[in-house]
Every structure is written in C-alpha cells, then in structure tokens.
Amino acid sequence: MWYERPSIAWVIIAIMVSGFLFYSLTAVACSITSYCPFQTPASTALQMLGIDKVLSPIFESSSRYFRQLKKSAYAVLQRGLGTLRPGWNQLSKPLRSAVCAASEFARRSLKSLSTALQKGLRYLASRSSTNAGDLESQQDPDALVKSTSDVETRSIKWLLEISTDPEIYIAAACFIPQVKWPLDLDVPDIPQHVSDIFTGCIGFDGQILPSLKERASACAMILSHLYYGRVLEAYPGHSNFFGRERQNGNVLSESVSFFIPDTGSIPALEPLLRVLPYHFVTGRVEEYVEKFAIAVISKLLSSPSSPSNQTIADCIFLACVMVGVQFDKKDIILTDKSAVLPQVTQSLLAQFQRVLCAWDGGDLDKDSTGITRRAWGLLDIICRMLELAQSHYNRSFNTMRNLDVCRKIYSRANSYKQNDPAALQNDLAALQNALHFTFTAAKVSRDPDYLWNQRYLNSETDDSHSPGEFDWLVDYFEGIYYDQEVGFDILLVLGSMKVRFSPAQQHRFIETLVACMGSNKPVHFRYAALRAAHTVREEIASINDMDAGLRDMVLTKLSPAILTTVCPRPGTTLADDPHYFFDFDRDLCYLELIYALAKDSNWHPHLLGDHHIDWCNSMIEEYRMHPPHAFYLAGILIQIAPEQSSVTSFDAMTEQQWWDIMWGAWYHAEFVIDDTHLLEFLSVLAEGMKRYIQIASEDSLRELVRYMDEILEALEERYSEQGEGVGVIDAVKELRTVASDKLVW
C-alpha cells in the first residue's frame, strides 16, 4: 500500500511527525517550568535528568530578547508615527477617513477577540473559585493551603510567564484573589512585567486612564501580593520594590489611587480586603493607608444589605493585621476566611483590648509602631465588626481594664477643655466609642428593650472595686447631661456593675439618679436610672451611715423619684409607654429595691408617705402567683405592717390576699437559701403565715407540708454545721408542724 498510494503514506508520516514535534515541544516547555499544566511522563523524565537547568537560561534569555525586541519595535513605530504625523495632517479628509475606518475596524476586531478570550478565562476562574470554596467549607483550615503543585496555581503562573498579550495577562492575574497563591513561589520576572503593564495604564498627567482602571486594579493587586510575599519570605529587612529604586509608598499610592471608599461600590471594594493585609504585615505603612483601610472596612460593613460571612471575616482579618495580630502565611493566603471566623474574631478582641490597655493616655503620634493609632482609628467600627460576629467569640471579663481605658480618654479630654475644643470633641467621641466597645466585648446589649435582662458586665469581681473608682463617671455624666444617648450609656454601666463611690461623690451620684428619674425624661432613661439604683440598693438602705445632708436628700427626693419610674404619669397612654402599668422585669427590679429599703425601719414612714405601699398593694392581684414578685411583696408588707396597723393601706387587704401573697412567696424560698440577706426573712414569713393558716384549704395545706419537707431538707443540708441557719430551720419546722396538725384535726 505504501508503494501503491504514496500520497496516503506521506499524509500519515506528516501527521506522525507533527504529533511527535508537538509532543516534544510540550515536553520541552514542561521541562523548562514545572508550573506548566501540560506535564507528561517525558517532561518529568527530562526534569529528572536536569535538562531544565540547561534550557531555562536559554528560554529566559530568548524571552527577554523578544520582549526587548517588541519594546524596540514599538518605540520605532512611535517615532515613525511622530515623524509621519505632520504629513498625515496634510492628507485629504477622505483618505484620512478611510484609514481611520480601517484602523477602527481592526481595533474593534482585536478587542472583541481579546474580550472573548478574557471572558472565557474569567468564566474558568469563577468555576475554579467555586470549587475551591466548596473544598474550603469541608476541609480543616490547615489543609486549605495549596502547595505549589496545585493545578490552578501552576496554570496561572505558566500563563503569566508566557503571555505577551496584556488582556490575557490581566485575565490570568484575576485568578490570584480566587486561589491560594503561595508566598514562596519563585516569580523573578512577573513583577517587572506587571509593573510595565501598570505603568502603561497611567497617562501623562500621572493619573490612571479611566478606560484602564480595571487593568490597573488587577496589576495593583498582583503587585501588592507578589511584592509583600517576597518581602515576607526573603527580604524581611528591606522595603524596596523588587530591587528597583521604587519605594513602598509609591506602590501603595498607585494601588489605592483609583479607589474612593466613600463612593466606591461594594463589589469594587471587596478585592481590596485581600490586598490590604499585605500592606500591613511588614509593619511599614503610612498613616494615609491606615485611614484608607479603615474607610474600606467601614464602607463594607455599613452597607444597607447585610454583609456575607466572607466579607465580615475579611474585614476582621484586616483589622487583626492592623492591630498587630500575628498570623501564619497559610492564614494570609486563604481565599475564603469565613472558615476561620471564630479564631480571627477572638484574636481581634483579645489583641484590641491588649493594645488599648497598654496605652498610657499620651500622644498617639509617639507610637513608633502605629498599632495604637490604628486601634484608636478602629474604635469607630470595632463594635460593628464584633456585633456582626457576635456568635463567634466569647464574652470578655476584662471590663475594668476597658473602663480604665475610658477613664484615660476622659482625663485626656479634660486637659483639652480650655485649650483645644476640636481635640476635646474628638476625645469625647472616642470615649463614647470606647464605652460601646466595653459593652460589646462583654456582650451587653445597649438596646433598651433588653435592659432588664442584661447580664452584669463583670459579676465575678463585684466586690473588688475600691471607693472612688467610678467617680469619673459621675463627672462625665454631669458634663454631657444634654446628650441622652451618652447619659444612657453611663447609666447602663452603673446599672451593670456594683459601683462604689467616694464619700464626696455619693451626694452627686444620688442627685444624678434623682434627675434621671424625673417624669420629663424618656422612659428608657428613667428605667436605666432605676436599674442603677437597684445595684446600690444596700448602700442606699443604710442611711444611718450617711451624713445628714445626704440622708435628707435620699429620704425626701430619691424615695418619690423611685416611684415615678414605675407609676404611670397622668395622661400616659399605652402608645406612650407599652409597659405603662405592669412590666414583669421592671416591677421585679423595683420590688427588690423597695425590699432592701424596707429592711431598715427608718425607711418605713417614707415608703408609706410616698405611696410605695399603695403601689405594692396594687400589684398583689397581678403577681400573687409569681414566686419572685410574691416573695418580695410579702417581705415588704410583712416587715412594715406590724408597725403601721392603723394605716388604711393595710386595712384594705383581706385575709385571703395575705394568705395568697405569702403562699406564693414560699415557692421562691428555695432560691434564697444561699443568700444571707434574704434567708433571715424566711423566719418572718413562717410566723406571718401561721396567722392566716386557718383560712387555708386542705389541698393547700397538704401541698404546703410537702413543700416544707423539701425546704427543710435543703436547709439542713446547707446549714447542718453552721449556726446562722438554725433559727430559720426551727421556724420552718414549727410552721410545718402547725400545718400538719391542722390536717390531722
């Protein structure tokens, strides 16, 4: 057949030779660079033989030669055009129009071809990033770091090394934020090439050409990534740009000059979150870049739509790097950091507190590292970041340290009162932000709707505060009385901690509470003042320890003011105050406060005269079957009634009401066994209940006896070796005996 049909033989031979040549060229290309995605067994064998060491220098020299040749040809063409331009201007208009039309057609055709290729690459990039995101959500973070042998990384590097078309080159560069680009890749020529493309995007006026902003953005991204990666890996002591006399600041300036956070769209700003961390990891960043980074975070987190977990994680990660959190390079190159959101959020909270607490209250410009200045700048948005990631961090118990930072800021603001009003306003704004951070770190909501259910800021150290430690808060409150938002924050602090004041400040503190409880104040403001009074109820009750002036003010002004906070004002409607009459949590706070005051007989005439007892009577029907409320209602009424038997407030109470309120109180007894302030009342409650036991039904008595057995068991177990509970145990036993005897009879 070969002799009979030589044409077919030549075709087959030509195909085989072409295939062999193509395979050989592929093997040689793959042996030159291990990042070529078309690796074959032959290329692997050539690499093992070391052929790449021979071919690589030749290929690199040839590549540089052709690039230089292209630049030279371009320069010659430009000069030729410059020479011909005067003559061109003399050409007739029809000829110029024809040439322009032809050149425009060629330009559009090339642009369409380039755009199609670029879109294809971007489509592959999106498919690649989706697959990478799926893997990240399923794998351990340590397994998320791709090695230099990954297909995506090798393909991108290969395209960047061989491509001469800027459009294709930039399309390949757009892959970089979508894959985990290792910082240890050997990329000696890529930065120079990208820099040349970036320079071509800048016009004669030094500004980036509007039509080339997308290309400039991609170039800035890859320049920042590769440059800072090389600095981190190989040149930690240098800040020059890949060996040229081009300083760090210029690269940063170019990389951010086309982004305006205040007007930029969210999609345009999101890529910056993956670029900006590289500007901070070396520790050499200008102040304007810090402000730019803060503006980017603020813009992204304040968008009308809720940011994604990935955006939140990127913002928190950037903030972490800004305040000095140390990360491994595998964390820096993570594409989707939402998988490590709990770790970065906890790291940000801990480091932010450390940085602020280390501040001595002095000039921020004296901070050589810039970390404290950055933390100060982040005060505006730290709460927003933590609130969005609230489920990913544990509440802080460093409240006193955070409040000490607030005190330092207040002292610094005080020093500006006369000399620098602008600095004073800046520090007062920072102080408010620092207070908000204190609440957010402790997971204490500032929402008035959650006021009564708030946890304490730092309950485990309630008794560790020295007198005078909170004096500055009273001074601060008096200075901003006109700002109800700040006033509410201060009252929230005072109501969330067991505060203690110096004798000189106690009088001013009580005056502050009285003023805040006024009927002209907003409802949430009065409630916050009531909660603050509740936290110091034992101190307010001990009027014998006060001087005459303070005692008189407490008895004559504070007592009626307390009732004002819970008693509806004349003309109040449900629309004005949804809880205008009864509110479960508010009324419990009020009853606990009045119970503490009723333990001191000096308070009894004032509680009666200011109509607190009348208000308590009005609550009986509402709360008689609610154990906490019934316990404190019984405690208030039983402690005052024996001394005021002729008062009409008690005459109106029926025996059944007395029995109901005391019956409900016993259901709360098991919760007060460990509280010595409340335990002693059980004896009084037992004595009072014996007076009305004759009206009890048989079922009520049986249930009472059963419950007394449970209470006695708990009391004897708790106080079996201590004398303080013996009297209570005896009183409860006696009540049980009376109830049991009545059942037998």
UniProtKB/TrEMBL annotation:
Transmembrane is among the record's keywords: yes
Sorted UniProt keywords: Membrane, Transmembrane, Transmembrane helix
Membrane spanning stretches: 7-29
Name of the protein described by the UniProt record: Uncharacterized protein
